[in-house]
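Practice problem: predict the structure.
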Amino acid sequence: MPNSPQPITITPDWKVELSRSVTTINELLGSLNLSAAELSTSQQAVADFPLRVPRPFLARMQPNNPQDPLLLQVLPVMAEQTEVEGYSPDPLDEASHNPIAGIVHKYANRLLLVVSPACAINCRYCFRRHFPYQENRQSREQWQDALDYIRNATEINEVIYSGGDPLAANDHFLAWLTEQIAEIKHIKRLRIHTRLPVVIPSRIDPAFLAWATATRLKPIVVLHINHANEIDNEVSASIKRLQDCGIKVLNQSVLLRGINDSAACLAELSEKLFDCDVMPYYLHLFDPVAGASHFDIEDSHAKKIYADLQAILPGFLVPKLVREIPNKKSKTTIAPE
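Answer:
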């Protein structure tokens, strides 16, 4: 008998996946067999900072578990309405380093382009949850001012695409912008800070890979993964697609209360990242952004967790523990106690 035809798996276009994202508390909790009565959810928090969760990320959450570490990263809760002294809308003072629309320039040899105001997922601890994206939105013509700024800043050798999430932008625009930057001789590297390959793995498609590898610039993708449960087979495959095209992949995490605040949890993440040939890069101490103080961890506890992590892992799997301090010329490395 002839072999039966194999079923064809059709992966939805990433834009379709994005359009199907969950945007209400009821739908999010209903998908996980949870009720709002089990959690201190807040509709006002949604009004202040919209809920957005792509379904591939939702599929990795554990049903019937109100403490699921992926759920807690995206669930709007009452604690967001509490004003806490020392937590501000602009915890890194980026407004002082936003010389023209679209650019954040804090460090000597690199700058950041706010390529897209949109994110595929709205993480509740995001330090840019209050960023004035509307003031940094630009047409292609208006981007010429940012390109002129880069041309004149000859000390810069690296451009970082950020946002929002830069990969929420249109590939045609990203291809054009990358070509323009590649024509600036003193720029050597293009770094892309993104969560999209994690929350919608289909974003790493032929169109993205084409423009990301089409110029002389050395491309680097820095992912944002906080917990080992965020990595499934689809995410591993998206990472491999990047690596197969010669794109270096790193990861940065944020140390978050109730999410990954143990050495065992962080060690599992580092091991799973290395299984995907991804190097753990940074472990950030929490940026004190207004509306997210409930994620913060005392420095003494963070240092203890980090010391325990160093005792578990070989050095090459231990990310640097860092804090970003406003107006410092680099991230500040934090020594364990």
